[in-house]
């Protein structure tokens, strides 16, 4: 009887330890994924987006891939001037992008508004 | 004869230990206990797996650091000039390969605007913060040498630490009085090398955020 209890206890402890190690590894992976996705979000935010833009690479040992598509694009509205056949007459083109990001098999989606000017890069204005 | 038989049965039972019924009952109780323990452990695992917030302190610190750098302000300092009557104004940002100084409206410790410096000291990467709008600091030309200064350990057991600054497609190791668009922080520990990217809101598309950060943290 004592042998049965001892063997059972060893099996139970072993199973518990194995489970604990598994969850610890999963948590470590989750944390690495979280930190890497935060960094990638910053990278996408800094980049000048365009229609069909696609990038891939490796960061912190995790493979990533992202691509963006235009949701809607329009010029800013100038008060006092009506719309003509080409739309609003504003200087800036305001574009909403949808970015699909994949990090180590995990899918994320984020949206970004970008201002563009046909005259020159509006980034220089600030 | 009957009395003799009863005595012998009692002796036999005490010598053998447990009956089959006792054994089955104890095994059932034991297996129930093990089952309950395993179920609770499994439930704990499911709860851990569906966790939506960072668990480790390290992850929390990095998240706070992202907020701190994202809320970097275009802070204009004043340098008094003894020779010239006019004052010298400058952007309060200094980036070097192993050190970075900036002003954030959302420091990791405290709530007000603070002068921040990230540097490696010993085997730790530290964030030093000194509130600007206090009687012990000069808001025109703030310093970290005040009694209000706080220190937060960002990374421990660090072997190598480096910072790089990107403007457009140009990457530099040193940047002074100019704001970068992206900061790349590389931290090497015994577990390997990690790269953290931090964006500074500098482009026109971030104008709304920049205007908002004057009044409230992003």
Overview of this structure, please?
- The complex is a heterodimer of chains A (126) and B (218).
- Chain A has one helix at residues 2-46, and strands at residues 54-59, 62-75, 93-103, 106-116.
- Chain A is 36% helix and 33% strand.
- In chain A, strands 1-2-3-4 form a four-stranded antiparallel beta sheet.
- By secondary structure, chain B is an alpha+beta fold.
- Chain B has one domain (57-215).
- Helix content of chain B is 31%, strand content 32%.
- Chain B contains four helices and twelve strands.
- In chain B, the strands form three sheets. A six-stranded antiparallel beta sheet of chain B has the order 7-6-5-4-3-10, covered by helices on one side. In chain B, strands 9-8-11-12 form a four-stranded antiparallel beta sheet, with helices on one face.
- In chain B, strand 3 and strand 4 form a beta hairpin.
- The longest helix of chain B is centred in the N-terminal third of the chain and has 30 residues, at 20-49.
- Chain B starts with a helix and ends with a helix.
- The A-B interface holds A 1, 4-5, 8, 12, 15-16, 19, 22-23, 26-27, 30-31, 34-35, 38-40, 42-43, 45-46, 59-61, 112-115, 122-123, 125-126 and B 17-18, 23, 26-27, 30, 34, 37-38, 41-42, 45, 48-49, 51, 54-56, 58-59, 62-63, 66, 166, 181-182, 192, 194-199, 202-205, 207, 210.
